Here is the input.
Amino acid sequence: MRLGSDGGSMATYADGDVIFAEGDDGLYLYIIISGAVLIRKEGDIVATVVAELAPGEMFGESAIIEQRPRSATAVALGDTELACYDRESFLAALADDPELALRAMSALIERLRVTTGRLQHLATQHVLDRAEMALTERAILESELS
Here is the structure.
């Protein structure tokens, strides 16, 4: 993507700065120029790290495309420089640069792949936990009957 000539602006963040919070309006898509970004999902007790992103990676595209609130929080890791694109600029850049469209689709597909893997792991773990609990209960009952 051609920075500066396609409607994007630049922003800098210090280590620990919140770029956007879960629930915020999705006004911009970001591409990491330097530094890194942590994406986390806020929980009732603790936050879950969803991803650590490096230079060249984009984030925030889901909220721009769907025009929905942010689904996670983004935090700068170290001094971070970002290229920022509002929805209009991003859509114009997509029309001018098919490679950018492929990068955006690839980023979304990779996130879907990672999420699917995590869901499969959680589903399997839940089944194993239930089986372990059932075996433990059975062992307790058998020991009480003996």
In short: Confidence is low (pLDDT under 50) at residues 1-5. The first helix runs from residue 61 to 66.
